[in-house]
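hey can u check if this looks right to u? its 551 residues, i copy pasted from the old doc so theres a chance i mangled smth
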Amino acid sequence: MNNFNHIHFESKWYKKWQQSRSFCSQVNSKKSPYSIMMPPPNVTGALHIGHALTFTLQDVLIRFHRMNNMDTLWQPGTDHAGIATQMVVERMLAKKNIDRRDIGREKFLEKVWEWKNISGNNITDQLKALGSSPDWEKERFTMDEGLSLAVKEVFVNLYNDGLIYKDKRLVNWDTVLLTAISDLEVEQREVQSNLYFIKYKIEGENNFITIATTRPETMLGDTAVAVNPKDSKYKNFIGKKIIVPIVNRPVKIISDNYVSIEQGSGALKVTPAHDFNDFEIGKRHKLEFINIFEKNGRLNKSVPKNYIGLDRFEARKIIIQKLKELNLLEKIENVKNSVPYGDRSNSVIEPLLTEQWFADAKFLAKKAIQAVKKKKTNFFPGNWANTYFQWMNNIQPWCISRQLWWGHRIPAWYSPDKKIFVAENENEANKLAKKYYNKNVVLKRDEDVLDTWFSSALWPFATLGWPEKTYELKRFYPTSVLVTGFDIIFFWVARMMMMGNHFIKKVPFSKVYVHALVRDEKGQKMSKSKGNVIDPLDIINKYGADSLRFT
């Protein structure tokens, strides 16, 4: 008996299924509809074991309902993956000694599209090797013409409704990529750090309060010291002035319930322009916001002359040395500390005060919260609804702009006096400007692009042809079930719920099936840098797709 050759048989049958259009939904079918939205994998990506799990589960559901005589749509597609794709193409150009700034935006985007068309569709071929059976004839891409139209329509509508606006707020800033990034792109790593205990002198007294910090360089931007109002050891100091060392800035000692009595020294240096919690304290107490960093992580002109231009970590060493000389460094303790790193650049993320575009997530979350409370959308297992509520009830403004070239460029134009005109195209923006000024003015387009998750949030309805009232939209929306890992409940599931409820007035899916993440034997997330990944294609080549899917 000959050995069974799984590679031969799997590719043979997959081709037959595709040729016979077995995976396709049917037009004007009398069958009941059943639909699943494929979470669009990054166009830069390679299949990993997590994909193997989630796509197998989706395929099982689709094939089961297809065999039960339902009209199924498993909607496939890929995500343009703003930061990841730009990085890949920039590195590719760097090998030829080409910098994107030298060739300019248009030429660079041509290079990205060239790359996408040649090697960016690998993930689709890998999904076919896995045996996935979506309707490939309906495959979409988050930067295709239809999706781009939907993105512009959504942006303009939300802006006109006052739900998108520009504001100066703290964001996660990547000093290497020079862009704001989302919480999902920030990796909290536990590292050994130094905790520095620094003495701040009370103004007019021979007395000090000790402050504990892991980031002494940010003290140059301190605008208050906060203590807990219930902390008896500091009660008499509230309202007095205290001198910030090195800059010799007198700032007020304030009381705020956020400050922990037990943590550190019980007194908190407040740097509203460089810490998310301090930002909120600064707003509550109407403090001054002093930004001390350039976008590349070097100190700017808001610091003493001899520190200007220093890298933040170089500045830390020099500041510690100076504090020792001034006899203001009480002690240094070695502690375990959680430090935010950019998952793409591998650099320490800096909270930075920048002007960005924001969406009013608090308003958009209201209907999305009610939809789950009223069981219009149900989580399986049910306990994941608690995670959803916890995040949605405490939601912050959503920073939707990115300082990149690859992505959906923000449809906003500026007049010479900085008046903003938001429109779907330049022609419409010019009309708005002419109406406003009663004459033609030269407009300049916003340089930024939208967060990748913005277009992904529209996936359940934009892929079905919205804003057109298509047959597919009417038939397959709301979709039947969403299958996803728990790590993107906030970033994707919640945002699809917000956008679907707002624009279609219906939930995007009636069920959310949340599966676990595949981890290594130590319980760690798999990553190439750790060397703990399993490539599902290796397993498929050795044992076959069926063996992988079954296990």
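The CA atoms of residues 462 and 542 lie 39 Å apart.
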